[in-house]
Write a structure and sequence with these properties.
Layout (H helix, E strand, L loop, with lengths): L1 E5 L11 E5 L5 E5 L5 E7 L2 E6 L5 E6 L5 E6 L6 E7 L2 E6 L4 E8 L4 E9 L16 E4 L2 E4 L1
Antiparallel strand pairs: 1-2, 2-3, 4-5, 5-6, 6-7, 8-9, 9-10, 10-11, 12-13
């Protein structure tokens, strides 16, 4: 069994911030080592999804079997990402500074995430500032849940 561990707010230049570790053997491998940190991770359909702490926000999609980066894309709609969840080809991202959950579709033919709009924002939020500070979103038993 393996665990994917992200580190955020990294400084000092070593950049070792996305770690895949085999929980049985203890073997460690860094999948990405050139980004300042990550604030969201998900797994789905044979891929790892990682939200980078960059401006603008970037997403990396890594093929699980080969550990090859298959997508490195800016997501200009996302402001201060804090979490990500995947349901088949749909990717949900918490845009904390906007009190929103954004919806993207993963187009595998074009190898792009396509923005589909705001999936959810709280009833009393303007959707333009951080008033609720959502941190967690997960796909549990094929249902997207707030955590």
């Amino acid at each position: 069994m393996e665990a994917l561990i992200s580190f955020c707010n990294q400084s000092g230049g070593d950049g070792n911030n996305l770690l895949l570790i085999d929980l049985e053997t203890g073997k460690k491998r860094y999948l990405l080592d050139s980004v300042g940190g990550f604030t969201g991770l998900a797994r789905g359909n044979g891929y790892f999804y990682a939200l980078a702490q960059t401006s603008p926000t970037k997403i990396y999609i890594i093929e699980k079997n080969t550990e090859k980066i298959i997508l490195d894309q800016e997501l200009r709609e996302v402001s201060d990402p804090h979490s990500i969840a995947v349901d088949k080809e749909i990717v949900y991202i918490v845009s904390t500074s906007d009190d929103s959950v954004l919806k993207y579709k993963f187009n595998k033919k074009k190898m792009r995430l396509v923005f589909e709009g705001v999936f959810w924002t709280p009833k009393d939020s303007s959707g333009r500032k951080d008033t609720c500070h959502y941190n967690g979103l997960a796909n549990l038993d094929n249902h997207i849940r707030w955590i």
